[in-house]
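Write out the 3D structure for:
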Amino acid sequence: MDLNNDGIPDLKFTLTSSIITGFPPQWYGYTAGTILATPLNGSAILMDSSGYPAKMNLNDIISANANWDTIANQIIFKKLLSNGTTTNTGNWNTATGGFLGLRVIAGGQTHYCWIQMNAAAFVSGSIAATLTLMDYAYNSIPNQAILAGETIATGINENSFASSINLFPNPANDYFTITLGSNNKNVEVAIADITGKIVYSTSVYETNMIGVNTSDFAEGIYIVKIQSGESIATKKLIIKK
């Protein structure tokens, strides 16, 4: 895959499937299906704490603040049959619409990307691995975060604006405050739940602080998007009741 259309491959998927009759002998380990991913030309894959490529959810943040790995043949998913048992390795067994986070290099600069895909290794008569690539996008602004499932518009500047913004308290219960560091004009705030549904929005002509009542919010993770002019920032908010 060439995610940023610069003519240089960024990622390779390798699928192996086995066609056998009957169940393997009890003493024999048999890899039924494997899906591997290899980052190419300086790219890297976002990993979870267990050391496998993470299956991210809609609106999860993909940024420099993550565990990245450049090694080849990372296990998206593997199914092993051995001694009458089945062992699944990786995060993508029958995963539907999950997001794979990626970091790619273009022109010597770092860009963050996502791929939405379905992946599975299964036993059904024959033994197979399947991978369906549904969609992908990358942030054309170097060194800028992207949310899983989000398409970033070229020209939006996030660095200094985002670093000046804080959410407090976070985790929050029934109220939190957005501090902007300095007065900003035409500030727009939108808060989305993990499905992408907007649960709160407001706009203020000029301010350096916005309070939000979250007493009606369900417990969970939210994405707070703050925009002032062409500057935009995204922050993760946790609600705990």
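DSSP finds one helix and 16 strands in the chain.
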